[in-house]
UniProtKB/TrEMBL annotation:
The keyword Nucleotide-binding applies. Catalyzes the reversible adenylation of nicotinate mononucleotide (NaMN) to nicotinic acid adenine dinucleotide (NaAD). Keywords: ATP-binding, NAD, Nucleotide-binding, Nucleotidyltransferase, Pyridine nucleotide biosynthesis, Transferase. This is Probable nicotinate-nucleotide adenylyltransferase. It comes from Flagellimonas algicola. Its EC number is 2.7.7.18. Pathway: Cofactor biosynthesis; NAD(+) biosynthesis; deamido-NAD(+) from nicotinate D-ribonucleotide: step 1/1. It catalyses: nicotinate beta-D-ribonucleotide + ATP + H(+) = deamido-NAD(+) + diphosphate. The keyword Transmembrane helix does not apply. Signal peptide: none annotated. Belongs to the NadD family. CDD domains: NMNAT. Residues 6-167 form the Cytidyltransferase-like domain.
Amino acid sequence: MKQVGLYFGTFNPIHIGHLVIANHMVEFSNLDEVWFVITPQSPFKAKQTLLDDHHRYQMVYEAVQDYPKLKPSKIEFNLPQPNYTVNTLVHLDEQFGKEYQFSLIMGEDNLKSFHKWKNYGTILENHSIYVYPRISESTLEHQFKDHPKIHRVNAPIMEISSTFIRKSHKEGKSIRALLPEAVWKYMDEMNFYR
Ligand SMILES: Nc1ncnc2c1ncn2[C@@H]1O[C@H](COP(=O)(O)OP(=O)(O)OP(=O)(O)O)[C@@H](O)[C@H]1O
Ligand SMILES: O=C(O)c1ccc[n+]([C@@H]2O[C@H](COP(=O)([O-])O)[C@@H](O)[C@H]2O)c1
């Protein structure tokens, strides 16, 4: 059975931090592929600065097209919003469960709020989680510290966020180096986040 890491995110826009994380996971763990699942509406995020789903998908598509082990996924586009990950996982297991075994990939900031996710216990019962280090406020719940299903990877910290990219771009700063080249071109041509 193929091992797939599901990298859920808003990707508004996808940046090189996301790519480094996916690449690290697929090269240094037992995962065969990473699927970037573009989330229409995260339960914890306001919709204000959010670009249309299809534009965010297109940027992910452009970013990964030269990397055969990385794939974009629209699976959440037709699911009810806000998008609770537990529901998407049920859907994916029903559709692909015979071919693929799914794990989750997330930054450490998301692990720190994981106890607030819908049915997080069910997610952990059925799936492993790979966590990439990230500086963030708040502390990690004790229950997640040495959990057998949670694998914390030892990798360099990158202080890049989509929020920083949107804000800097709006202020007229060049953020070209923080984006895959094709994403930068698309964003620039389409005049996003101005
Ligand atoms: N620099 C980073 N280091 C570690 N994890 C990251 C980093 N950037 C994003 N992630 C993780 O990638 C996933 C998707 O992130 P998301 O699309 O929300 O990006 P973001 O940069 O955090 O966006 P925003 O600034 O808009 O909140 C989350 O699990 C998040 O923790
Ligand atoms: O299922 C939940 O309760 C849940 C709560 C918060 C976030 N998530 C998912 O985690 C992913 C990253 O979220 P965010 O807010 O950091 O972009 C995104 O796909 C969200 O749908 C999921």
